[in-house]
Amino acid sequence: MVEAICLELKSRHLENNRPSIETIYFGGGTPSLLSSSEISVIIETIHKHFNVGNNAEITLEANPDDLTAAKLKELRTSQVNRLSIGIQSFRDQDLKFMNRAHNAQEADRCVKTAQDLGFENITIDLIYAIPGLERTDWIKNITTALGLNVPHISSYCMTIEEKTVFGNREKKGLLKPTEDEHALEQYILLSSILRENGYLHYEVSNFAKKGFESKHNTSYWSGKPYLGVGPSAHSFDGISTRRWNVSNNAIYLKKIYDNEKHFESELLNASERYNETVMTSLRTAKGIDTAQVKANFGVDIKKDFSQEISEYQSAGWLISDEKGIRLTEEGFFRGDTIASDFFKVEEK
């Protein structure tokens, strides 16, 4: 797989005259299974075929049970300078409920060990609206995270999808999802506590101390081009072309080694590009630069959607000023629904 990834990198180095690489992200699946030497091989291949900027942010996703002291020591010998750790919760009952392989003690231990070994740029994930998670439990989770002094926290609402274990349990009446009002309460509580402790709520699910915002994820929300390599990886040229690799590992490997087409692609039309800009922009604290959108797409949001803006302002979910429009904390919680009301449908 490492060899195939390097072959794909080599074959795509001239694609779209890509600018300097600012971030490298090992994510999706279990990249922490890679040894530091394998990670280094991939990074060296990127340096060989791409122009990598100075002080590039290089992130590795990992689960706490993967990050033993030995593994972390090994990672320190690589160029990885940021860790994204899937803590999810510091409560054992939550972790058992979500069928996580680690426990609360391992979650605490891996962060502290990483910090002791010199990793400063660490982000952790927390899940709220877990069935049975009470207000006091959630506050304890947040304060435990604060006690670890990590500079970045991502937090996501637990959702139950059809045709999943949780979805089947809900269908049989064995699981009752958290009500929206309680999920919103936990979300607002999280934002309030983190803000009081010096974190910037810079994106709907992301909080960071100043200077520790995720450069990689911010590029997605800013519409910058990105190159995805490996099974299931997605790419975007920053203009209108999106592509994605085959998801099956064996098929990916065969197609790479046989030099066959290993991806599908689509060309976004003007309406789709506008809609994506609205969706990603409203996810951020900066919101939509309405003047820029008008210049790029010819859509005068404040004029064309004046009624929607007025309604959401009255509800306390949206702010409209000379900079553009952006969502409030409560608006963030309803972001997908609000954003869709500003979409344009392609004219046939």
What does this structure look like?
With 348 residues, the protein is α/β, with parallel strands linked by helices. The protein has two domains: 202 residues, Transcription Regulator spoIIAA; 71 residues, Orthogonal Bundle (Arc Repressor Mutant, subunit A), CATH 1.10.10. The protein has 16 helices and twelve strands. A seven-stranded mixed β-sheet has the order 1-2-3-4-5-7-6. Strands 8-9-10 form a three-stranded antiparallel β-sheet, with no helix packed on it. Strands 11-12 form a two-stranded antiparallel sheet. α1 runs parallel beside α2, α1 packs across α10 and α6 packs parallel to α8. The mean pLDDT is 93.
Give keywords.
16 helices, alpha/beta, Transcription Regulator spoIIAA, seven-stranded mixed sheet, 43% helix, 19% strand, Arc Repressor Mutant, subunit A, globular, 348 residues, 2 domains
